[in-house]
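pasting for the record
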Amino acid sequence: MTKRSSGWALTLLAMLAACGAVEVPEDFTYRLPAPEPRLVAGASAGTLRVAELDVVAELAGDRLLIADEGTRLRAYRHHHWAGPLERMVADAIVTGLVRSRRFAEVKSPSSSGLEELVLVGRVLDFHQVRAEDGWRARATFELRLSREDGTLVFQDELRADTPMSVSDPDTLARALGTSVGTIVDEFVQRCDRAGLFATARPPR
């Protein structure tokens, strides 16, 4: 082997060794913590079904997102939700409403049987936003509650911003779970104001 070819071989070996030393980034997945709503004693309404939720286009996918300024969104690289966002949010709402103890039964979209109330909605915001006093985890849902015959009980946008102690994906996931819990509390209060609990029979 000539000196020239030997030099090329050593260079190639060095390049291969350097490539092998490159560390591949690890992917992280996050679950959405289940809400812990405030418990308020009182009669319960009937059976409520939480139907499938829609997610606006910019939130589609499994990325944890940050809204920096204006309309710009960016994602935490290598950090993802553990499942489809619409299903995770729907599951969290179901769990929160079950824990509120204000409905005779709360059903998921796939549950069998009949219901007296149907909740449908859209996820409009579900990301980290910058505020004057730091970062917040914002959740905004457009919710529509109807009776089984289609009569509208109420339709409105409910929003919750939860302060974040630091700006990182784990804090964001936890804070978004808190925001969902705040919205569940507000939803139960709206049901109360709509007279659902006042006209319901106490649970047996």
